[in-house]
Amino acid sequence: MTKPQFPQVLSIAGSDSGGGAGMQADLKTMQMRHVFATTVLVAITAQNARGVQRAQVLPPAMIDAQFAALAEDLQIKAVKTGMLADSQTVQTVVQNLQRYDFGPLTVDPVMIAKGGAPLLADEAVATVRDQLLPLATLITPNLPEAEVLTGQKIRTEAQMRQAAEHLQALGAANVLVKGGHLGADQAAVDYVLLANGRDFWLTSPRVATANTHGTGDTISACITAELAKGVDLATAIRVAKAYVTATIREGIQVGHGHGPLNHWAV
Ligand SMILES: Nc1ncnc2c1ncn2[C@@H]1O[C@H](COP(=O)(O)OP(=O)(O)OP(=O)(O)O)[C@@H](O)[C@H]1O
Ligand SMILES: Cc1ncc(COP(=O)(O)O)c(N)n1
């Protein structure tokens, strides 16, 4: 009897010991979306819903070895990046993404945790912008990340559109600017600009909750999972927005502070 097969996907990210964000959020999301998740771990954080206590980056040779192990045996259909820590790590990841064909690349340019801890060194911003961004099928910055990458202030929907155009000019094929950081009185509005010039807005009611740890990881992991199944990008983004909205709306209570999402939500 033939055994069931699932598309294989890859999360390149840091570990969140608290289980809410980072690689753990990616794994939970990918499992829920019925793809087979693999990982390249680049950093370890001691973290909970209250914040990040400590972080340690893995040596480049260990990162290379994880990529080589996957390339030798698996058939990765789509890949995403999350926390990349520093410039050397970004460069190591870029080299490996150029070496192996792992399918469409979603770049979540993670910079600062919800609690305020830096997850990307300042010196690495230019490396992300100049070396990683041009490889991206899709880049998914939140507003502060889009501001850092473009050098533009983003407070309005018109500025979200301008930032997306700027990110495309920097080399990202498609752009999703996430509006989770817009004011508490505003809806959760995201803007999508596709490679073919088409664009659209995704709007959902803002849920009044502190439990939004890992929303960015979850939406980008869900997009990656859908792309691995062969779903077109615009549909993958819509599906992922609906999924992340459900994980926030049907929230659970774990820990204190910025608690994690309900990845079981459908
Ligand atoms: N309170 C909320 N209610 C509903 N949707 C939200 C809320 N907060 C964020 N979102 C949505 O969640 C998704 C992630 O956006 P956000 O801007 O929070 O990303 P992020 O800051 O990268 O997330 P994180 O850093 O927590 O991983 C977007 O679709 C956004 O609109
Ligand atoms: C290892 C790791 N990766 C990513 C995030 C971003 O998630 P958030 O902004 O919700 O804290 C995080 N906190 N930790």
UniProtKB/TrEMBL annotation:
Pfam families in alphabetical order: Phos_pyr_kin
Enzyme class: transferase
Catalytic activity: 4-amino-2-methyl-5-(phosphooxymethyl)pyrimidine + ATP = 4-amino-2-methyl-5-(diphosphooxymethyl)pyrimidine + ADP; 4-amino-5-hydroxymethyl-2-methylpyrimidine + ATP = 4-amino-2-methyl-5-(phosphooxymethyl)pyrimidine + ADP + H(+)
InterPro entries, per the entry: HMP/HMP-P_kinase_dom, PM/HMP-P_kinase-1, Ribokinase-like
Coiled coil regions, renumbered to chain: none
Keywords, sorted A to Z: ATP-binding, Kinase, Nucleotide-binding, Thiamine biosynthesis, Transferase
EC number: 2.7.1.49, 2.7.4.7
One function term, GO molecular function aspect: hydroxymethylpyrimidine kinase activity
GO cellular component entries: cytosol
Record flagged with keyword Chloroplast: no
Pathway annotation from the record: Cofactor biosynthesis; thiamine diphosphate biosynthesis; 4-amino-2-methyl-5-diphosphomethylpyrimidine from 5-amino-1-(5-phospho-D-ribosyl)imidazole: step 3/3; Cofactor biosynthesis; thiamine diphosphate biosynthesis; 4-amino-2-methyl-5-diphosphomethylpyrimidine from 5-amino-1-(5-phospho-D-ribosyl)imidazole: step 2/3
Membrane-traversing stretches: none
GO biological process annotation, one example: thiamine biosynthetic process
Family assignment from sequence similarity: Belongs to the ThiD family.
Name of this protein: Hydroxymethylpyrimidine/phosphomethylpyrimidine kinase
Species name: Limosilactobacillus ingluviei
